[in-house]
Amino acid sequence: xxxxxxxxxxxxxxxxxxxxxxxxxxxxxxxxxxxxxxxxxxxxxxxxxxxxxxxxxxxxxxxxxxxxxxxxxxxxxxxxxxxxxxxxxxxxxxxxxxxxxxxxxxxxxxxxxxxxxxxxx
Length: 121
Prior knowledge:
The protein is α+β, with helices and mostly antiparallel strands. It has one domain. It has three helices and five strands, in the order αβαββαββ. A five-stranded antiparallel β-sheet has the order 1-4-5-2-3. Strand 2 (about 45-60) and strand 3 (about 65) form a beta hairpin.
């Protein structure tokens, strides 16, 4: 029996399955004690530039988790690269991948946060 490229691709898809979703937000800030004051009063903002952060969480046999794939962790990673206080025009992408999905041998989910880093004075 001869294996065609189509059969090989179908076999590969059986062992690796994934999906993703994307959302857009106007602004994301680090947790602070006076977040309402940030919105109520005028502040000077310095644009630092585009940045992104990606974090993942893994699952072994769909029971044993490790890692952190929260949006907050991805935002903190993006801000730590740039040294900013907040992100503007934020795009959040969450992806889920599974290897041998019938048995859930290994799966992982990743969250990527991208935006323009700003410093609030």
